[in-house]
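Feature request, filed as a ticket because there's no other form

It would be nice if the structure record came with a short human-readable summary line next to the tokens. Right now we just get the raw output. Example of a typical job, pasted below so the devs can see what we mean:
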Amino acid sequence: LERTLSDLTSRELRTKSIGIVPVGLTKFRDNLVPIRTLSKEDAESALEIADRYRKKFKWIYCSDELFLLAEKEIPPARYYHGYLQLDIGIGLIRKTIASWNYFKNKFKRFLKKNKVSPVFVTAELAYPLIKKISDEISLNWAINSRVIMVKNNFFGDTVTVAGLIAAKDIFEQVEILPDEHVVLSMNLFNTEGFTIDNMFIDKIIEHFNKKVLFVEADFTNWYICE
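Raw output as currently delivered:
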């Protein structure tokens, strides 16, 4: 990591920004070079190295996964300088927290108007944040809300990001009651509306009898299917 940052911050490259993320490993690694997942100590070391380089190069950003793995607080918004690496998820948790606080009253009115009892579907990484949001809905707004954490059987349990949840895993692990709506993040789908396991969005809507609420990953927009 030190060598990589040294290379990327050289004046000749004129690098605009750098994102540091832990290696993503699936269960499909037969006959491949052995690579292990990062430990808490690895994440702490990566954050320390990045901080040293950030003293001179402010546009180096560590992923949300590294902070969570190291059991460190997610940085404030100013750390991300406008979220230059948001496309690969860096800063998404902080942006979601900020957007939720800004839009939550509007979201509450939407839920009440449409009589929606939300069942949020997420993965391990975002579960603590989504659980906190769901609890706030239940406790403060008198709206029944809950969260289902989906295990990634499609890629393996080392994959913990919500954007890589397969439709097959959702179908197998998520059940809702007649008065509930499943809440799915739009980052489950590509720009053509397909999940990572090639399931078109209409199939998911059909599976849940049109009881689906789609929400942007950072809570800046949402829409319902009826």
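Something like this underneath would help us a lot:
Strands lie at 18-20, 60-62, 117-122, 146-149, 180-185, 212-215, 222-225.
The two ends are 49 Å apart (CA to CA).
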